[in-house]
Amino acid sequence: MKEYLNLVSHVLKNGTVKTNRTGTDTLMVFGYHYKVNLQNGFPLITTKKVYFNSVIRELLWYLSGETHI
Q1: What is the number of helices (H) and of strands (E) in the chain?
Q2: Which pLDDT belongs to residue 10?
Q3: Where does the record place the Thymidylate synthase/dCMP hydroxymethylase domain (predicted)?
Q4: In terms of pLDDT, which residue wins out, 1 or 8?
Q5: How far apart are the C-alpha atoms of 8 and 59, rounded to whole Å?
Q6: Which of 2, 11, 45, 60 could form a disulfide with 15 if both were Cys (CB 3.0 to 4.6 A apart)?
């Protein structure tokens, strides 16, 4: 979790604004290496509530190849 929070902090401090075709601005950085040691378990974001059913629905949607939700 610490690595993820470091990444978010880095993007907020060093990111450049990128506007896309929808007009939604995003922050982006290039070349940031995010490494996680899987021997310590699977990294799961714990800063927000994640519902298992939503994860399964999104995974099934992704695997179906659909492009519209």
Answers
A1: 2, 2
A2: 93
A3: 2-69
A4: 8
A5: 24
A6: 11
Burial 38-61 (b: 16+ CB within 10 A, else e): eeeeeeeeeeeeeeeeeeeeeeee
Longest dimension (CA), the chain: 41
Residues 6+ apart with CB under 8 A from 43: 1, 3, 4, 36
Cα-based distances in Å from 5 to 12, 37, 43, 62: 11, 15, 12, 26
State the pLDDT at residue 23.
Answer: 85
* CA atoms of 38 and 11, how far apart (whole Å): 23
Report the C-alpha gap between 62 and 52 in whole angstroms.
15
Per-residue pLDDT tens digits for 24-62: 899 999 988 888 888 878 777 777 788 889 989 999 999
pLDDT in the model for residue 46: 72
